[in-house]
Amino acid sequence: MNSLMIRASAGSGKTFQLSNRFLALLAAGALPTELIALTFTRKAAGEFADRILSRLADGAMDDATALSLAGQLADTLIGNRASGMPPLHAGRELPLPGLARFRELLEGLARDLHRISLSTLDSFFVRIAKQFPYELGIGSFELLEADDLKAEKKQVLARIFREVTERQREAFLGAFRLATHGKEHTRLSALLDDFLDAHHQRFLNSPEREKWGDLSSIWPQGCPWPHLTDFHTAARNVIALLGTVVVPKKAHATWIKGWDTTADFFSTYQPGDGRNPPATVSRMLALLDDLRSGYANDLFNRIEHGIGGALAHAITDLIGGYLRAELEVRSTRTVGLWTILYAYESIYEQTVRLRGRLGFSDVTRVLAHGGVTADGRARMESRLDARYSHWLLDEFQDTSRSQWSVLAGLADEAVMDSEERRSLFVVGDTKQGIYGWRGGEPRLFDDLLGLPGWNQRMSEWSMETSWRSAPQVLALVNRICDPEGPGMRGRFPAAALRRWHFRPHLTSPGGENLPGYTAVVEAGESESDDEEG
């Protein structure tokens, strides 16, 4: 069986392809209990199960509906050279199923419905933990749902303020003040809850102190921008030099007005005050490197405004000082945030996890980093591998590296199976990643194809026809998503743009020639392996 990766855009039919793959595997002879399909939400898992059953039930009604379903499965089963879809089995031609076969499949699926693995990743990991508690070193445990986790969190916070010494409490509050530096707040408990909801998982993924608030990772050679305290005066210096801007004709009046608005902004600016800067500041941030070198060209309303000499230096001081001040404030907050999370996590570990009360994220961490011995992991993977032959992973862009490390050994067996009886299927869209806050890693797509042996065993296919939006909407999206287009030009350095290639992307079902391109990062050409961009 071929393993397949599908990169599919919004509205292009990912769920349809996922159910197609499931039904095609059944038609090719796979048992329902050999298949496992995993996604991220219970709703998505339910919709997937409904789609499979309803399509199979329709195909089992009569000859006409059977012929229709067989036609829908044809590309998945036998491939389609025109679209580039590879066949399900490269070694032999699979016959298209008919009415009798669909009825047989429906009967078998209904009979084994209680044994079929269609679920969320979290639920699957909990099942693994319950199957192998001793290999994982956790014994029995209680799974905490959202309300239970919230109650435990409040208990931990209460203990921090009730049981620690006054000195420890003051240290904790001092860290909290650092984490909220420059922000106004009135409800301590509410703000602490927000911090924990937003950042606790991030701390668990990277608990090392040196990874938090380290400006040297941004500026290894030291900050190139000046330390500025009087932003009001610096802004007025820029205003005084605006007459030196070079233009083919008179500077655009709105361009001048934008600098007046910028001066008003900096007259009351305090680093970290949370206000969005004027559009002029955003444009100058994109031109900062050019300004620092002594000359920049600000294209505004189709008029080139050449900024050089003393004006370029004045804007560099103002905008560079603003950038430095904002990053320094955020670094200070980040250090304070780490201290809060460290204190919270130390007590949470002792009072919750060690009592066998685990949340879904705890289960994933135990499976991925729980100190499982090599023999223990081998036993787990061997037993699971004996049960599942075909893996289908939905919304792959939201899979974290921790989650993938749990699945990797099983997926590796599927892809490297010399007898080609097993397979791996992943589908997703890197542009729709929504779980970055808990470690979702869209780069896993390219990482998978870069693994030794995988690029020979795993086919790749893209879906670029959107069935959800009108051509006019798609044209707008394509235009906005083009980094070399007028809307994005200047937001990326030239060196970064050279690492991108472009291809016509979202199209409509009618195949209209929509303007614009979307960028796809070339695998393996990123200059940095940092987790955070």
Model description:
51% of the residues lie in helices and 10% in strands. By secondary structure, it is α/β, with parallel strands linked by helices. Strands 3-2-8-9-1-10 form a six-stranded parallel beta sheet. The protein has a two-stranded parallel ribbon with strand order 4-7. It has a two-stranded antiparallel ribbon with strand order 5-6. A hairpin with a 2-residue loop joins strand 5 (295-300) and strand 6 (303-308). Helix 2 (42-59) packs across helix 3 (63-78). It is globular, with a radius of gyration of 28 Å. It starts with a strand and ends in a 12-residue tail after the last strand.
* Helical amount: 40-55%
Shape: globular
Summed over residues and divided by their number, the pLDDT gives a mean of 81
Please give the radius of gyration in angstroms: 28 Å
Overview features:
6-stranded parallel sheet, 10% strand, single chain, two-stranded parallel sheet, 12 strands, alpha/beta, 21 helices
Can you describe this structure in just a few lines?
The chain is 51% helix and 10% strand.
Q: How does the SSE layout of this entry go?
A:
Layout: E1 3-8, H1 14-27, E2 35-39, H2 42-59, H3 63-78, H4 99-111, E3 117-120, H5 121-131, H6 133-136, E4 142-143, H7 146-163, H8 166-179, H9 188-205, H10 231-241, H11 253-267, H12 279-286, H13 288-293, E5 295-300, E6 303-308, H14 309-351, E7 357-358, H15 360-369, H16 374-387, E8 390-393, H17 401-416, E9 423-428, H18 444-450, H19 454-457, E10 458-463, H20 471-480, H21 494-497, E11 500-503, E12 518-521
